[in-house]
Known about the structure:
The protein has helices at residues 15-28, 82-93, 108-111, 118-123, 141-147, 161-171, and strands spanning 3-8, 33-37, 40-43, 46-55, 60-65, 73-75, 78-80, 98-106, 129-136, 152-155. The chain starts with a strand and ends in a 7-residue tail after the last helix. Helix content is 30%, strand content 33%.
Amino acid sequence: MAELIGLTGKSGAGKTRLFQEIVNAAKSAGLTVFGFFCPAVFEGGKKIGIEVTLLPGGEVFLLGSLEKRKNWQSIGHWWMDPSVFELANEHLRSFSSSDLLFIDEIGPAEIDGNQGWTEALNLLKEDSFRIGVVAFRPAFIGYFKENYPGIKIINLDEDDQSEIRSLMERFCKPEITG
Length: 178
């Protein structure tokens, strides 16, 4: 059975940065990775956009902007490109297997609105990866505990940094036991 780890924390807690570190460590250890992560785009110290980076290839697409754009959808205070959501969903549909599956991040669009990364919620229930790592905000801890029994949740706002270091060490080892 696949192991599922949830990384949670408020905006700016470091979920995506930790994702990037884990992905790099896993690749260095020769592990196969699949999924995506969504780093912020900053200009003058202000967050102005969101990108999506597909794994394993590293292709990068602009997902969201604070500026209104033609044919983009408003989600909260962001304008999101629905074609990039579809591109990422198509990427997820192409998944067959990997050591590690990364999904950054699941939010209200997926859970409340059946939008966004719709393929991700089903993929997380499959057994075609050894360890899955999914990021989400603390408001969704209850949803993940209810829908993904056995998920290990690490709250970056509260948990001891030693637990995070231990997680990083696990991803640096070529042999993962799950």
